[in-house]
Amino acid sequence: MAERQLSKHSSNKWVVLALLALAQFMVVLDISIVNVALPSIARDLHFTGNNLQWVITAYTLTFGGFLLLGGRAADIFGRRKIFITAVTMFALASLACGLAHSETMIIITRAVQGLMASFMSPAALSILLSEFKEGPERNKAMGVWGGVAAGGAAAGLLLGGVLTQYLSWRWNFFVNVPIGMAVAFAATRLLPHHIGEENHKIKLDLPGAVLATGGLMSLVYGLSRAPSLGWGSHTVWSFIAAGIALLVGFIYNETKAKQPLMPLAIFKIRNVLGANVAFLVIACTMFSMFFFLTLYVQQVLGYSPVKSGVSFLPVTLIIGAMSAIMANVIGKIGYKPPMMMGPTVLAIGLFVISATMKVGGNYWHNVFPGLAIAAMGMGFTFIAGTLAATSGVPKHFSGLASGIINTAQQVGGSIGLGILTAIAYSTIKSDAAVHISQASAQVHGYRNGLHVGVGLALAAAIVVTLVVKNQKVDAKEALQAG
To answer: Are the CB atoms for 260 and 208 separated by under 8 Å?
Structure first.
């Protein structure tokens, strides 16, 4: 009977891939789809000050903070069980987001969404890796997986604009409900029970996950309160100090835990350390750039949500084109040169955006040039950084290395949004106090935030230069990384 079930399933593994890819599509979609809707959410739910960034940060913090725990939970309790449960809860959290009637409610429900995504995504990837044998078959499956992830980011921008403009921002969340329920139901029929059997020998490092996520949330919350309470506020520095203390506690916990969430030994590999620090810093600038530009094109330039979504589509196209080019270049010169160049080009793009941004501007003169340059920098970085962070890693650390890359990006984005929006909104508040127009104050604030982003991007280039060791990689392997 078991053999018949296995045989039946094997002939449907590409259907299983489609199911898993659809789940991953929802995860990626929910990161980008909300960006375009931010001004509408802020207006309807009466967001105060710079709390709006928490619509993004709440999702990315819990997603990044619990991603490694989610992967470990799938190994302990079974990938099939975790996947179905997480998809169902993700759909329900999406429904709650759409029904939110206050800023507090949407921030909490977004955090729950991110938590469910952190269990859903690694479980789906684990099932994919277990079902497709290493070699051409798995490479093809991973190509589909990567393509769906890239497509989700692009589709989110356009779909978010259409839903927000013609229905409501709430439909950016409601759209997940029927899809999520359909995926969960199909998973009960298509995923056989032999996938990812339970392994209770592995221990769940729950203290590590709580310390890491609690520390990050406290740190980012402290930074986010600075514009309204002032940098001299006792509350601000109490949360920042608590965040730092919890993160120090996380590092200590990882050195003592028998089965740590993130074994620190992996960072003894120089390229893993250098690439992930670079990814974390680059994500600080990227998330903030999209946040500022979304508000700029809609609130200052007066773009509709659809027009705003379309205006960001060139980013996906440029990153895709540059990644394809870099895959071939890396085979000849190694991954360090592109990885050094990427953050530098990104810094130039951020500087151009900040220098040209103005009240009464237009897309082609004041947004596109800098955005295109920044996208080229991202294209230089992504494949090269992924290869640097995973090449030369022992086999027993391979899954962990991949998980850390995603964690670094999500956590970096959260911290970056906290720092750069605090700087931007402090400027906006100061300008408003001396009766500078709202639009001019916004532009001034976004410029100051982007200037810090320039410095962070250059810091990432310096880290790569000093830490990462160059290595040539086969072009086929580079394409698979892309």
So the answer is: yes
